[in-house]
Specification:
Blueprint lengths: L1 E5 L12 H15 L3 E6 L10 H23 L9 E7 L8 H8 L3 E6 L11 H13 L2 E4 L5 H4 L9 E3 L7 H7 L2 H10 L8 E5 L6 H14 L7 E5 L5 H7 L7 E5 L6 H6 L3 E4 L8 H8 L4 E4 L4 H4 L6 E4 L4 H13 L1 H18 L2 H22 L1
Parallel strand pairs: 1-2, 1-3, 3-4, 4-5, 5-6, 7-8, 7-10, 8-9, 10-11, 11-12
Helix pairs in contact: 1-15, 2-3, 8-13
Length: 384
């Protein structure tokens, strides 16, 4: 099939790294692995985070113009150039899809969405128009892949029948992470390169540094680690961003134990994860946490806050430990458990790697996507 792909929240080619950008890239890779031709329909970023109604209207008008242009282009093209379906990744009230539904209505092709959320409480807020547009797109969707089970409750009232909801566990391309986990020589070399003692338990933290939930998570992690300062551990922080100074200030009392890696190329991540003994992240406001899946793929158990869909990707007690959101004491206690029990830590790491390979790898996602999309297009063609 020929698939028109659009990510209104953040394009797969956006210059700033994030879990959003990574998932957009992974989705296109999974679709391509199914033998489909992927066309980037637009790079319009519809996200508007300030509640500026005039800017939202401007983005909507631009989206409509892009939709009209795409319809003119594809309507006059040969059958082998027109898309068989439209695939939108991640829409919600701050990043609605102003393009896809209009194109699908005019070309008569299925509209598919992966990861959408609906918060009815926003109906009277500054994103009311975006909420209405997102709700309309969700209701219009012929198929909706759910990456975060916490979103289901808000989505189901908009859909009829509810069978259009298809679970799609969030995923990574696990191969490089698994390979890194099997290379003890590289593990030691990575530690040596960053001045990390070979035998000291190493905690990994991988996240962008920006105001809001990310900064709150960093501060909570610093609080939790200060509570277990009597134990032997080092922290490796991978990430950067506008809140770097505030993050550094939060960890200042622990500065001798913190190794600042900064912003890195994605290709360097597997070796860094594999050098760690556990991954910790409070996950405040997190949908699921791409880093949590990556760490587990590298055989590293996770300690995280039980936020959003985090429980979908971390099997509490099996591949890691989950703590109540915002509870520094509980987070510290969970980290301490894995620091104190190296055998349990290693067992969880192996279980985590197996679970990612079976459930959260790009190959599993490709199969889920392929089966659902082929069935959808087959039904659409029979009806036509």
């Amino acid at each position: 099939m020929r698939i028109a792909f659009y990510a209104p929240m953040k394009s797969a080619r956006h210059p700033l790294p994030s879990g959003e950008r990574t998932m957009a890239r992974l989705l296109t890779a999974a679709l391509a692995a199914g033998g489909h031709a992927i066309v980037t329909a637009s790079r319009l970023r519809s996200y508007e985070g300030a509640g500026d109604s005039e800017r939202q209207k401007k983005i909507a008008r631009l989206g409509h113009r892009i939709a009209e242009r795409l319809v003119r282009c594809w309507a006059g093209a040969g059958a082998d150039q027109r898309p068989d379906l439209w695939f939108t990744y991640h829409l919600y009230h701050k990043a609605p899809d102003w393009v896809g539904p209009w194109v699908c209505d005019h070309l008569g092709i299925p509209y598919v969405v992966a990861e959408a959320s609906h918060a009815a409480k926003r109906a009277r807020g500054p994103w009311a128009d975006g909420l209405a547009a997102a709700a309309s797109a969700i209701a219009r969707a012929d198929l909706l892949f759910v990456l975060n089970s916490a979103d289901t409750q808000g989505l189901r009232p908009l859909l009829c029948p509810s069978s259009r909801l298809v679970p799609l566990p969030p995923f990574v391309d696990a191969a490089a992470f698994v390979a890194a986990s099997n290379d003890p020589v590289a593990r030691l070399a990575t530690r040596r390169r960053h001045g990390i003692p070979a035998e000291t338990p190493l905690i990994a933290c991988v996240a962008m540094m920006r105001p809001g939930d990310k900064l709150a998570s960093y501060r909570l992690l610093a609080d939790a680690l200060a509570r277990i300062a009597g134990r032997a551990w080092r922290l490796m922080v991978i990430g950067d961003g506008p809140a770097r100074a505030a993050v550094a200030a939060a960890f200042a009392p622990l500065h001798e134990r913190v190794h600042w890696i900064g912003r890195i190329d994605e290709a360097e991540l597997p070796a860094l994860y594999a050098a760690a003994d556990l991954c910790a992240w409070p996950a405040i406001g997190e949908a699921w946490g791409m880093a949590l899946i990556e760490a587990q793929a590298a055989g590293v158990p996770v300690v995280a806050g039980r936020s959003g869909g985090v429980a979908d990707v971390v099997a509490d007690g099996t591949t890691g430990l989950l703590a109540p959101i915002g509870d520094a004491h509980a987070l510290a206690s969970a980290i301490a458990v894995l620091l104190d029990e190296p055998l349990r830590r290693r067992q969880m790491g192996r279980a985590a790697r197996r679970r990612v390979q079976a459930r959260h790898d790009v190959a599993a996602a490709a199969a889920t996507l392929n089966d659902a999309l082929r069935a959808l297009v087959g039904r659409a063609r029979r009806i036509a």
